[in-house]
User: Fold these one by one.
Assistant:
Number 1:
Amino acid sequence: MTRKEKLLEKIKRNPWDVSFEELDKILRHRGFKCRQPSKGSSHYTYIKGDVRLTLPKQNPMRPVYVKMVLKAIEEAED
């Protein structure tokens, strides 16, 4: 199992203790392109095909955002 796979499993097991950087690593590894926030914004947009995801940069990430990321990864791989 690679480090990225282990990280993804850790995130699935405990969505309460996840940093923005961990989600960013997973999304980029899965092929999502990141668009930096515009001036005055703290939200990053990730795009892969028809799947679009917007995340605020905060630590720790709220579980609702972690679940959105996991669902987006599933949708993008189908």
Note: The CA atoms of residues 49 and 76 lie 7 Å apart.
Number 2:
Amino acid sequence: MTRKCYVTTTIPYVNAKPHVGFALELVQADALARYHRLLGRDVRLQTGTDENALKNVLAASERGVATQHFVDDNARAFRDLCPALGVAPDEFVRTTEPRHRRAVERFWQRLRADDIYRKKYTGLYCVGCEDFVLERDLVDGCCVDHGKPPVRVDEENYFFRLSTYQSQVEDLIRSDRLRIVPQTRRNEVLAFVRQGLQDISVSRLAARAGGWGIPVPGDPSQVIYVWIDALINYVSGLGFGTSDGWDEYWNDDTLKIHVMGKNVWKFHAVYWPALLLSAGLPVPDVVAVHGFLTQNGQKISKTLGNTIDPVDCVREFGLEAVRYYLLRAIPSFDDGDFSTERLKGVYNADLANGLGNLVSRLTTLCSRAGFCCYVGAASPAAPEGYHEAWSRYEYDGALAALWKLITVVNQEIDRAAPWAALKAKDPGSVHGHLERWLGVLHSIAYWLAPFVPRASQTILEMLARDPIVPSAPLFPRLVYLQ
């Protein structure tokens, strides 16, 4: 097992406040980081904000404010979202920071000289995607994701010889040296690569970008394409270009995991590895691709204006309820509909009636039976299927393995009916049952830490008390308002 692990989210545009779609990615990455820490790895978790995009400039202009003021305000909202969701990144990168700019300049200079050239280009550019699109991929002349027609662009830019790296990128993916999960996405990426990689534009005219962005080294008339700039955050946050030791987590021995949405795999699984190969740097190990959150079947998007504020959800339901819902009720790889009514239902069924009820029953039984504290193993065995689900990046599958145990113990308590022995004043006869059930609950609580860390810690502390006392409701039932 590798000793170190580096987990990252993508960095979202700050053209609006964060919505619940990015909350999904944050809690997935945070759960991954916490899981690998339980395994004893030295883990680094990183997130941040993408601030050099043209869409940020346009959004600031629409509001009549300076671009820097606008991105500062929204970046603060993204940073504040982390503690609201119980996420504690080791690094938060803003791409307008001087350290990131220096890293981007240094990265550009490390690219092989013959991989960069300049040429004139005409194409259709979607500002929402910050990417060129093909006419055949449009629906009624509009971008599928953003519902707006692209802009025809005719200019001279710097290009990167992506075509040179086609066989190397394909070999990385085919051999699983660069592992893409789920398998359906891996197949999709391989099909894209095998169609033939075309060289890509890696700069934009500074004038068209409103002077916003990181200038190409030696040519201030061009700014570096925002997606190239953004990808470099994965090393700039480690200190690349500004300090020594950045390769402590970016090396061939560290497990490097990128967590992202399904609309950006082209940049992470194709462009980024090729750029790293050109720069002579290690490539990532895993690209874990999740689906979209939807509302009534439609993608939740800042552009579409159907966003849900995750902070409001946390205020109403609590961060553990929101974390659990996103990781259990939303498929790990496919699209999933977000509904506050469904959240309430999942909360009541799984947390209040399932885990919460089990904790309440066992602590009450222990108190009535005079059972002292439970001392479990420092790292108890996980339930069957738990680690296997994690190896497939199936967050919902790992939780299902834990909830299977919760159901089993609740059923065993019903069958054993220990309250009958307690009523007959024979508490000693139930101690053997309690020892076993508490052992299972201890294991459940320990391996719950990646998902609902506060509840996990609370349960472990309850079991360590001497004597164990009845617990207050861990998850009070939510009342439906008709």
Note: The mean pLDDT is 93.
Number 3:
Amino acid sequence: MAGKAVVSLTTGLEDPEKVMVAFLVAVGAAESGRPTLLFLTKEAVRLALGGVAVGVACDGCPSLPDLLQRYEAAGGRYYVCPICFNTKKLNAAALIAGAELQGTVPLWQWIGDEGATTFSY
């Protein structure tokens, strides 16, 4: 099995190109057979809510809904920072498939002793 991958994203739709690049990296890892986790913090937590990650970042770029669909189909998961999420008073019942409120301790447990390749956006 390929090694794990973690993509940490702090940016939401205020920078759609950064979001798209983070998802492209995560999709590439997941579709390559790596266990992949997107760790969403700050404004990125909103992307884990249904109907938020919409649109196209740039002319010729893949749409965000397509990237999310590919990520889910490849088995990608999301850990959504519960502090960031709850501070914004968001609704946990609206989380998308594969997303769960999990903080840094569960993140480290998921990574485990063998480590992971990481990217941060």
Note: The beta strands are 4-9, 36-40, 77-80, 99-101, 116-120.
